[in-house]
Amino acid sequence: MDRLILFILLGAGPGALYAGLAQSLVLTHRGAGVINVGAGAMAMWGAYTFYGLREGHLLLPLVYPGLGGPVPVVPAFLLAVALSALLGALVDVAVLKWLRTSAPLAKLVAGVGLMLTVQALVVLRFGGTGQTAPQVLAGGSVRILGGAVPVVRLEVAGLALAAGFALAAAYRRTRFGLATRAAQENEAEAMMSGLSPRRLSLLNTTFAGALAGAVGILVAPMTQLDPTTLALAVVPALGAALIARFTSFTVAAAAGLGMGALQAVALYLQTLPWFPTSNGLPMPGLPDVLFFLVIAGALMWRGTSLPDRGAHIEPRLPPAPAPRRVARPTAIGVAVGAVALLILPFDLRQGLVNTLIAVIACLSLVVLTGYVGQVSLAQFAFAGLSGLVVSKIGIDLGIGPPWAPLLGVAAAAVFGLVDVLPAMRVRGVHLAILTLAAAVALQNFGFHNPSWGAGGLGSPVSSPVLFGIDFGPSGSFPLNAAHPPSPLFGLVCLLVTALCCVAVANLRRSGLGQRMLAVRSGERAAAAAGISVPAVKVTAFVISAFLMGVVGVLTAYNFGSVDPANFGIVNTLVLIALAYLGGISVIKGALIGGMLMSGGVAATIMEDYLGLPADYLLLFAGVSLILTVTTTPGGIALAHRKSRNGPPAGKEPGRIAAVAEAAG
Q1: Membrane spanning segments where (predicted)?
Q2: What average pLDDT does the segment 104-125 reach?
Q3: Dihedral angle at the C-alpha atoms of 432, 434, 440, 445, nearest 10 degrees?
């Protein structure tokens, strides 16, 4: 018991990070009505800014000017917090200001763009490796129950609790706090009372940026200063904020510290002799699984009572026009693609194969987000699971095509069904939070597990041989097959992509597609018209996961192994960014997004022929996502739409008309 208590005390450091980020999330939601999944990235920016100042440099976007020497600790801390506050203000002015009348999912996706942009800027300057974060608070340790506990962990936990009580008191007793609460509860009445929601949003988002930056600076020495750790710390912080209903600072602080204690308990269990091991090491990823369970439980418990800011405003979503012609464009596209696969050099042929696979991934978002208005941040987790099934049953059991691909796709669809069960009680934004937690848990507990996952070196995949013919990238072909990938494998990918495009087009024109649009337009109105909203959402998730299962199978065969790096959360974030940029509600947008994906045709030309670093693609994805969400919600594919051709991009048809069309 003494060792368990010591572990819990050691968990006060990460718990303070989760508590601080949870309070930052509450601040942003109270002031701007946004669930900012980029809060962890803002903490990372503050930590890297402080690191740069202590090294004698000022961290700015794309530049790193010298300051003539290291800045002392206190001035560096204050300046880094001030710059973090400035980042929060910039996010509000440049992004959130233009999304006040947008759908909640658009605001969530803007946070994804913020995360990608900050990560890209950090990677471009510091690379993907970790740095040693400088200390702010004094060191030393105290003896508790026979063990040494660093004082700094207790100090940051105390500061996190103090911040929670201070913010709670400020928002209950000051005019600013009362005005923010009034705007959160009823923005229209607050405006009629003379309050300025815009000004309140700016101030709250500025405070949220400062708080996130401060907690990132203080806790970075206890974790790791790299482009991923602090950014993904938002997952347990979201769990704490959910428990606090995005309203209570004290509950958020306590829940964040509780998440840190839960993580410490998981680490303690890994030290016990009975804990399962893999290759002599404890099974990884248990804390992430526990975080996922907490978030799922909070959503099931709080689902119907979670606040929904700005419900009086008609949300704007990109239109999803039904395709008028399918057969002719498909035939032309297949013909052009086949010729390209036969004549292009091997590098562009590989880029085209990657593009075709990415198009299917974008189609999964067309179904889920474009048709139903839901967002999943676990798309590549579904794909990775499918590829892993193909790898394991192929190598261990000797099962190849067609059963291995079918079982892989089925596994992805089943996991999508299990992951979306809380859809019975919650809506799109909160489902996105759930899928984010699921993706992180599956990546760390599943893919990185040497026993049943891919481990650190990847899991090999047998070449797809059917009827004695090798359909894989290394298979033989009579034309232009000197270097992989084989044109035959490209033709297989082309055929599968064409079939998926036709299926999604027919889905949009079907009765199920009409019901999906009705649910997207208004869940209550759809339910009143006799549409089963949970059934429609679950069906959309399963179809989307099925498509990502196809992506996983093709990716596994394409690379000859299942590498966790190809199925990480960043891949999903980039997918969402480029799918939005292309046009997330139409098939044409999926084609554009697929061309822009990493390793695709556009990226291959950029890297191999123009000499631009691949890291710039991440920056391009983040900035493009923010610009698309704020200026052209319909993406490139719908940018040409005019009012005479229907509602402009970003305007949703009336709820009554959409529901009537689906019900009729």
Answers
A1: 6-27, 34-53, 73-96, 108-128, 148-171, 200-222, 228-244, 251-269, 326-346, 352-373, 403-421, 428-447, 488-507, 538-559, 565-583, 590-610, 616-639
A2: 86
A3: -150
Under a CB-based contact definition with an 8 Å cutoff, are residues 268 and 57 in contact? no
| pLDDT of 61 higher than 90 | no
Reported confidence tier of residue 650, pLDDT bands at 50, 70, 90: very low
Spatial distance between the Cα atoms of 517 and 652, rounded to a whole number of angstroms: 10
Of 205, 157, 223, the residue nearest 20 (C-alpha): 157
The token pair at 380 is: 């590549």
How many angstroms separate the Cα of 300 from the Cα of each of 35, 164, 426, 431?
18, 25, 7, 11
The number of beta carbons lying within 10 Å of the beta carbon of residue 182 is 17
pLDDT class of 646 with cuts at 50, 70, 90: very low
> What average pLDDT does range 278-305 have in this prediction?
77
Q: What is the pLDDT of residues 561-596, one digit of tens each?
A: 888 888 888 888 889 888 988 999 999 999 999 998
Write out the H or E segment, with its range, that includes residue 562: strand 561-562
Per the model's pLDDT, the better-predicted residue between 48 and 440 turns out to be: 48
Conformation bin of residue 345: beta by default, left when phi > 0, alpha when psi is -120 to 50: beta
Distance CA 286, CA 234 (A): 17
DSSP label at 222? G
Domains of the chain: 2-272 (no CATH), 327-663 (1.10.3470)
Report the alpha-carbon distance of residue 366 to residue 256 in Å, rounded: 35
Residues with Cβ within 8 Å of residue 617, at least 6 apart in sequence:
574, 598, 603, 606
Rounded to whole angstroms, the Cα distance separating 320 from 641 reads 12
Q: What integer pLDDT is reported at residue 659 of this predicted model?
A: 44
* Residues forming beta bridges with residue 111, ordered by sequence position: none
What local confidence, expressed as pLDDT, does residue 414 receive? 92
| Percent of the chain residues topping a pLDDT of 90 | 37
Which DSSP helix (H) or strand (E) runs through 147?
strand 147-150
pLDDT score recorded for residue 63? 81
- What are the tens digits of pLDDT across the range 33-45? 888 989 999 999 9
Q: What sign does the dihedral 435-509-360-593 (CA atoms) show? A: negative
Cα 583-586-588 angle, rounded to 5 deg? 80
What span, in angstroms and rounded, lies between the C-alpha atoms of 286 and 307? 30
Reference 342, options 126, 489, 524, 518; nearest CA is: 489
Q: Report the percent of the chain where pLDDT is more than 70.
A: 92
Residue 643 — pLDDT band, cuts 50, 70, 90?
very low
Q: How many C-beta atoms surround the C-beta of residue 494 within 10 A?
A: 23
Spatial separation of the C-alpha atoms in residues 159 and 499, rounded to whole Å: 56
DSSP 80-119: HHHHHHHHHHHHHHHTGGGGTTS-HHHHHHHHHHHHHHHH
Phi, psi (deg, nearest 5) at residue 45? -65, -40
CA distance 474 to 464: 10
Measured CA to CA, the distance from residue 644 to residue 655 in angstroms comes to: 20
Is residue 386 within 8 Å of 409, Cβ to Cβ? yes
Range with the largest mean pLDDT of 27-31, 442-446, 635-639: 27-31
228 CB neighbour count, 10 Å cutoff = 18
